[in-house]
Amino acid sequence: MMLVAAGPTWVNNWLTPVWIVSVGALMGLALLLVLWGCVFAVSRVPGISAMAEDPQRRLPLVGLGAVVVFGLLVVFGAMPAASNWQADGTFLENSALVALLGIPFAIGIAFALVSSSSRRAVGEIPGAVREGPLWPILILLLGLSAFAVAGVVVVSEPAEILQSLARTPFVGSRSVSFQVPPADEVSDAADPPQNRLDVSFRKAELRMLVFNSDEALTVDTRETSEIDIDPLIEVRAGEELRWLTSNQAADPFEDDNVTALYVRNYGNSTANLELTVVTQPEFPQAGAIVIVALGVVVLFLFYFLQRTVMPRLSAVALSTLKSEMAQPLFAILMAIGCFALVVFVYIPYNTFGEDIKVLKDSGMTLIMVLCIIQAVWAAGTSISDEIEGRTALTVLSKPIGRRSFIIGKYMGIFWTVAVMFCVFGLFLMVAVAYKPLYDARETSNTEPIWQICMLEMVGVVPGLLLGFMETCVLAAISVAISTRLPMLANFIISFAVYVLGNLAPLLVQNAVVNELFEPVVFFAQLISAILPMLDHFNIQAAIAGGASVPYVYLAWATVYCLIYGMVALLFALVLFEDRDLA
Asked: Which of 244, 456, 462, 549 is the most exposed place for a label (fewest CB within 10 A)?
């Protein structure tokens, strides 16, 4: 590691974004250990374990925990929504979204924590991690955590990045009002005296100063008695002035911690000045650490919640997961995906400097296609083949209902695809972080800083999430088809749904705008009403082009995925309910 640290700067710029993600993985595992220690201690309290195991007695605890979790969501979700409402009128939309997703999320997290507080559940946690889908994910996270510790000697400014994370709660936008007196009658009116304004911010965190005054002012960062020939900031009366640090050629501040600004009032009366200080962490990229950590915690708690609430369904899901991961197709798809994602970095796309866009688009599409193939194959082998081979009849002869069988099969496919997305997603992120440096070296251009690599790497995460949602929707449809048709028909119909689901918006728009034959318009609208609108998930081209995906879009896409997935599973239950298995 010391040899790597002493190597070329492109290595540091490449590994710094990966290290930030690794720190998030380490923090997520640390939070999980803390939660496990808490539930372990709570389970040893007399009466708590019995209350957690009793379905009726644990409801008050679940309700209390849900209120606490939802309160945290309101603080971090609805409060920003209120500030957005003042700017663009989206308060109601954001608040409805927080309530729609936050209430089930809070109940699920609270139920998972309370149910895990029993001694039996605490004792089953290590086994649940070792034998389920969490084991390969845990190995991946442990590898990232090891790099988070050892990579400190490799990355650029690790202490400053962690300090920026710690400073996140103390930055933001705050306004202060001042009254600046005019020049004294004895003083020279052409050169009023300076007035000290007490402020407090860090130079490295300052992004913008906003001035509003009813009198003409000049602002400087240094105290001086000389005449203002060329002041730093000139504020006109009645006009808002936005002073951006990014537009300054030189650093006007002497100290790292700024405590005062010096103002001269050129008006005839006392100036009412409102100063807004906008600050951000020195390295905003450190916020990815918290997002990764929370993602790790939510993923593990979701699996524990599934095992606790639906044990029979989880048994079917675990059996399906083990069966599919042991298949040769799973290993082949994993090998193809990992190899292709590495090779994509070195392929010359001849795009005149836009190779990274093609890499991101090709990588996200490849991952989604491979996972869809795995999902459709798993639905065919684990449902239709078991029905035809009378294996399903043997399984249902045990205390497992048809509903648990179908939903358990789907959850097994879900976790199989989740493991694939985690591995492929990490490979793609590392490749995208390296691609700008590789292109710069190949074209003899200036190597980009690590912030550019981080921006490119983080940009593919929304595409991966949307691709996973699309795969989950197609997996639910494939499960419904597998209850009645064999694998070949399942592949054909699923492929047709994939194609038509992506073309449905274009078909409807073309049919309506061009005023085509009425049956054509009806057929296009019928497709858009019945089939999923997969085009909502396929925004790889926009993401590859550098467009940012709002959190609201991801949230509504999640709602659409959940609704259509549940509808497809209900249709699967209806088709399987009267299926003759004998």
From this structure: 244
Question: How deeply is 519 buried, as exposed, middle or buried, from its count of CB atoms within 10 A (0-12, 13-18, 19+)?
Answer: exposed
Cα–Cα distance, 95 to 103 (Å, whole number): 12
d(CA 501, CA 488): 20
CB 51 within 8 A of CB 63: no
DSSP of 240-291: -EEEEGGG-SS---SSSEEEEEEEEE-SSS-EEEEEEEEE--S-GGGHHHHH
pLDDT tens column, 99-153? 566 677 677 777 666 766 677 777 778 888 888 899 999 999 999 999 999 988 8
Q: Give domain limits for the chain.
A: 1-168+286-309, 172-279, 312-582
Q: How much is the pTM?
A: 0.83
Instruction: Write the Ramachandran bin of 164: left for phi over 0, alpha for psi from -120 to 50, otherwise beta.
Output: alpha
Residue with tokens 């590691």: 1
Query: pLDDT digit string (tens) for 29-45?
Result: 999 998 888 777 777 77
pLDDT digits (tens, 9 = 90+) for 469-478: 999 999 999 9
Angle between helix 119-131 and 9-43 (nearest 10): 150
Overall CATH class of domain 172-279: mainly beta
Burial 399-432 (b: 16+ CB within 10 A, else e): eeebebbbbbbbbbbbbbbbbbbbbbbbbbbbbb
- Distance (Å, rounded) from C-alpha 576 to C-alpha 578? 6
